[in-house]
């Protein structure tokens, strides 16, 4: 932990660690994990949790057996037990710091793509223009994708297989995004990720991009693009969201274009609603196609079912504090800050 916090404040030290240590290490680890179809970090988590449970059980048994033995101090046993967990936390968090922290010193969207959000914000007219553009795009592609009997999106091809070529198009335009693509992994206990409000995550311990497959499939393609952006060194969540959208649209696959346009639309509409212009927000909402309405409703209902859980609240607060500890000042709101980048990028195209 000390190495990370010191280097993050000393010139280009963190950038050098990222270039010379983190990226090569993660490419190697992810390459090794590619040989297995399972999510390696998930297996590691299961093993760790199992080991902790076994340790707790044996510690309790040992404590009870030696309760009357004067040679075994009760206070010493309790202290030893607690210090074990303090040590475990420090090891995991310390590893996380040095394996993930330097990513925040890696090239950002401004350096990789030459795109920066206007520090003064976006013009309201531009927000409406880009929002309407994504409404039209989502409506157009909602008719091109496959749907189940209830009218909800279903993938016509395997998005995990398509991930191998997903970044080919955008990396031609922005060579800084060119990198070896490692297959994203399906997280078996995805329902647990949903309770934690995660659609996916990048594992700095194995270099894997892990995807929640329990949540509605309409967001799976753009989530894959998002986690692969992290794998390419884009650390900030708002920037990874932005990269995911332009990557999917550049790729051109119907499923990925629709997923990204649906994702961008939800963020843009939220921003428009927060602006107070409910009249324009309502007008654009009324123009949604039936397919778009069905998929947004399915996604909203799914995530709302987890909002009130204690696990969700605890993890949300913890993750918010975590993002802020890495200078992501907006905390979980960082996920919505991609709106400025989307407006800046697409207002010039549309």
What percentage of residues falls in helices of 4 or more residues? Answer: 55-70%
How would you describe the shape? Answer: globular
Q: Give the termini separation.
A: 46 Å
Widest beta sheet: strand line-up: 3-5-4
H and E string? HHHHHHEEHHEHEEHHHHHHH
**Uncertain residue ranges:** none
Give average pLDDT, whole number. 91
How many domains, in number, for the residues?
A: 2
Radius of gyration: 23 Å
In DSSP terms (H or I, runs of 4 or more residues), the helix count works out at 16
Portion in beta strands: under 5%
* Strand-pairing-aware structural class: mainly alpha
The number of strands is 5
**Largest sheet properties:** 3 strands, mixed
Short précis:
By secondary structure, the protein is mainly α. The protein has 16 helices and five strands.
Structural summary, described in words:
The chain folds into two domains: 2-105, no CATH class; 109-346, no CATH class. Helix content is 63%, strand content 4%. The chain is built from 16 helices and five strands. It has a three-stranded mixed beta sheet with strand order 3-5-4. It has a two-stranded antiparallel ribbon with strand order 1-2. It starts with a helix and ends with a helix. The mean pLDDT is 91.
Fold topology:
Elements: H1 2-7, H2 13-33, H3 40-65, H4 74-100, H5 109-113, H6 124-142, E1 146-147, E2 153-154, H7 159-166, H8 168-173, E3 185-187, H9 190-195, E4 200-202, E5 209-212, H10 220-231, H11 237-251, H12 254-274, H13 278-286, H14 290-304, H15 310-325, H16 338-346
Parallel strand pairs: 3-5
Antiparallel strand pairs: 1-2, 4-5
Helix pairs in contact: 6-12, 6-16, 7-10, 10-11, 11-12, 11-16, 12-13
